[in-house]
Design goal:
The chain has helices at residues 41-59, 86-94, 98-115, 131-143, 170-182, 225-235, 249-264, 295-300, 305-313, 325-343, 353-368, 373-385, 390-404, 408-420, 423-441, 445-457, and strands at residues 6-9, 14-17, 25-30, 63-70, 76-78, 82-85, 123-126, 147-150, 153-156, 196-200, 220-221, 239-245, 269-275, 278-280, 283-284, 321-322, 460-465, 468-473. It is an alpha/beta fold and 474 residues long. The chain has a five-stranded parallel beta sheet, with helices on both faces. The longest helix is centred in the first third of the chain and has 19 residues, at 41-59. The structure holds adenosine monophosphate and zinc ion. Zinc ion is lined by residues 31, 227, 252.
Length: 474
């Protein structure tokens, strides 16, 4: 591991050199989705940036094990442990059971997660799989005097810690304390305003769907306990990197650290990676706001999900990013031009290893410098312009795509096929596409579908996109 890998660590509030607990290995935990609704494109931005972090670490030579939870119980509508369980609210909204809702939105999440080129986590664990582990951690926290029982619930006692607000500067701490004070009457069982629920047995929502036996009565876990337990279950007592969106820093990650380190009796996680939000013109995108713009919706509108990834990669993960369809459209044009340039490369001749190494080093340096994705893309353009042969350029595109995951070679191949097929077949395809367009215009969808099927049976798949109908050989 000769190269240095650096990124911003929310714990130290600076860009830190990354040094894992075990040489060459990375134990990484990422907070997964709360599966009561579709994940919007903002949530997916967070997962794209985490995917880039993993692949950048791999590019730098690390072996990464990544664990992700699925929140299917205990996340209430207010982060201050009040309101309704989000899963229950989702079930009521759709007249389904909580588990049906969880299954449906977990599948929908991974469909979009995969479509933007993300690698699946090595372990995916729903919170409801780990209730015995949660109960055990709560028992230990009670034994050690970090937790107390009040009004039927078990709370974590934040006054037992010297430094509870680990991510905040002195000024921010004061602001947080004022914010917390405003909440004071919300849960009179809490000894301190910042205390949080580890286990509920009594609450104002008696119709909570999922409940389990515990030493303190039938109940269900608080939200934060799942991430500490699931992480320790699969990654042990020392975590290298914990990831999430900036909104997770307080109270979620702050509480995770409080309970984990009190339970373990030593430091838990060395690096905290937080990515900033995607906003639209109306402000922060939020699942609870109702209509959600998802990657699947973008796809239905004819956008390639990888163009959304391309859009995300061009801005830094620590800056807020504003989404608009105008900006996405200009990304479609830039992406198509990039694909065209890759499609023009002819893989003849030998790869010039010296040139390849020079550009790979530049790329690695950009990506290892607090994940400078826009600089990494600039290195890609520089490589395409370089004074070297096409075989070297193509090999560099493949190499960089291990991190960028834009499937540039696949897109280029599809574009070449469109222009290089047998002229007779090309004429036939164009004729059929024209007939299909006419059928669709006349609302004769049966004929339109039959044409699509017939083309497919001849190995030609067609897609409706923003730039018109596209096809590829399958
Ligand atoms: P949730 O399903 O609400 O728990 O959120 C899943 C992930 O998306 C969390 O890591 C959040 O921090 C993150 N997130 C929530 N809203 C946004 C947003 N507007 N932009 C980017 N990430 C977000
Ligand atoms: Zn979490």
């Amino acid at each position: 591991m000769s190269n240095s890998f650096r990124f911003y660590n929310s714990l130290t509030r600076k860009v830190d050199e990354f040094v894992p607990n075990e040489e060459g290995k990375v134990a990484m935990y990422t907070c997964g989705p709360t599966v009561y609704h579709y994940a919007h494109i903002g949530n997916i931005r967070t997962y794209i940036m985490q995917d880039v972090l993993i692949k950048a670490l791999e590019y730098a030579g690390y072996d990464v094990k990544r664990v992700m939870n699925i929140t299917d119980v205990g996340h209430l509508s207010s982060d201050a442990d009040t309101g309704e369980d989000k899963m229950l609210a989702g079930a009521k909204r759709e007249h389904k059971s909580v588990m049906e809702i969880a299954r449906f939105y977990t599948d929908a999440f991974f469909k979009d997660f995969d479509a933007v080129g993300n690698k699946k986590p090595d372990v995916i664990e729903p919170a409801t799989n780990c209730i015995p582990e949660f109960i055990h951690m709560v028992e230990v926290l009670l034994e050690k005097g970090y937790a107390y029982q009040a009004g039927g619930n078990i709370y974590f006692d934040t006054s037992k810690l010297d430094d509870y607000y680990v991510f905040s500067s002195a000024i921010e701490k004061e602001a947080l304390q004022i914010g917390v004070r405003d909440d004071v009457e919300e849960d009179s069982n809490k000894r301190n305003k910042t205390d949080f629920v580890l286990w509920f047995t009594k609450s104002k929502f008696e119709d909570q769907a999922l409940k389990w036996d515990s030493p303190w009565g039938v109940g269900y876990p608080g939200w934060h306990i799942e991430c500490s337990c699931i992480s320790m279950k699969h990654l042990g007592e020392r975590l290298d990197i914990h990831c999430g969106g900036v909104d997770n820093m307080f109270p979620h990650h702050t509480n995770e650290i409080a309970q984990s380190e009190s339970y373990l009796g030593h430091k838990w996680c060395n690096y905290w990676f937080h990515s900033n939000h995607l906003n639209d013109r109306a402000g922060k995108m939020s699942k609870s706001k109702g209509a959600v713009l998802t990657v699947s919706v973008l796809k239905e509108k004819g956008y390639d999900p990888l163009v959304y990834r391309f859009f995300c990669l061009q801005s830094h993960y620590r800056k807020p990013l504003e989404f608009s369809f105008d900006v996405l459209d200009s990304n479609v044009a830039t992406f198509n031009k990039l694909v065209k340039r890759v499609a023009e490369l002819k893989a003849d001749g030998a790869v010039d290893e010296a040139v390849k190494k020079e550009f790979e080093d530049k790329f690695r340096e950009a990506i290892s410098d607090d994940l400078n994705t826009s600089m990494a893309i600039t290195v890609l353009y520089d490589a395409l312009k370089a004074d070297t042969n096409d075989a070297t350029k193509l090999s560099l595109v493949e190499s960089f795509d291990k991190v960028l995951s834009l499937d540039l070679v696949g897109h280029a191949k599809a574009l070449s096929e469109e222009t290089e097929v047998d002229p007779e077949l090309l004429e036939y395809i164009n004729e059929q596409i024209q007939k299909r367009a006419e059928a669709k215009k006349a609302k004769d969808f049966a004929t339109a579908d039959a044409i699509r099927e017939e083309l497919l049976s001849r190995g030609v798949e067609i897609k409706d996109t923003r730039e018109g109908v596209k096809w590829q050989l399958v």
